[in-house]
Amino acid sequence: MTYSIKITSEDGEVIEIGNDSSDETGLITDVKIHLDTVKNDVSEKAMGMLAKITVKGIISNEESIKKKYIDLFNWSKSLSKNQWYRTILIKSYIDEDHEDVYRTYQFDNVFVVDYIEEYSATTKEADGKDHFELYLTQKENNLKSIETY
Description:
single chain, mainly beta, Pnp Oxidase, Chain A, eight-stranded antiparallel β-sheet
């Protein structure tokens, strides 16, 4: 399975990684979507839920892709309130050609909780490659805006 992400700000700035170009296929290695009930010790369904999204991927040295990682980094550290919340579109593909979409998710009003870049002095197999981890949470009271198809 392969993945792509497209993160869009309110003013139209787009960060897209893992699109169907050959140099980006496989850059997104893991996606986790977690709908988390905030209070777990309740006797009935709690209304307080958070959508948590984790995206992990390989950091490529390709010149055409470097700016995308810089944009992710800058979004994660932004102090400008109008840059915090964005829409993320996640596509999961059955094949590497991105012809058959397995599932698509769209989350509005997500923000960065944690962003990690990890570099290794030696690159071994896939586990030793330079990689990033992006942890997102959706702004409160937006669960109704989650789309999956």
